[in-house]
Amino acid sequence: MIIVKVGDEERAECGVCEAFRTVSYQLRDVPFDDGSGVVKNVIAGVCKTCDSVAVIPFQSVPAIKKQLQIQRKAVESRVPAHMIDLLNMASAELGATPDFVPLLLKYYIHHLASSPEAAMRVVTMLTSELATGMANKRLSLKGREIGNDIERLKNLSHIDNTTELLKGVVLTIHNDLLVNPDAQRIALLKSFVATVA
């Protein structure tokens, strides 16, 4: 592996100039392509013609991965054991394994956070007897948008406690997929399962 130093130069393809240009390795703040964040102060090859980042050396990859991990905010909670069983049963109903549960939860949280009417369903579900029980199982979700989606859903549903919110989401999933099956949603989720399985 070649290690570059600040000030080193070489020729590389510049995506902005759409041509091979001389790049100079400098310390730069490099934004992610999707605009979701910035990796600060890493060595990057900067085009001497247009001053844009043209290349990232391999040695800067660990710093970029670290920043991505920081952005993947983890949401941790403890819920009653039967809630995990409900999620596993819902996943099985879709033809998926328990590995699909985090994706199913993230889909539902995002969907429910998209409208006040949908969010209020979560509140209704918390009146169920299934919403009670000793919280003895860990539920963990990771993703760049999960924190934002949960905050939006909290605001719409007026549920401040993350654990209570997640219990309401689990019971909404249980209702839609097992108690009062929503054929349209089930078909959509089955096609989603087919693409990620």
From TrEMBL:
It comes from the Bacteria. This is HNH endonuclease. It comes from Rahnella bonaserana.
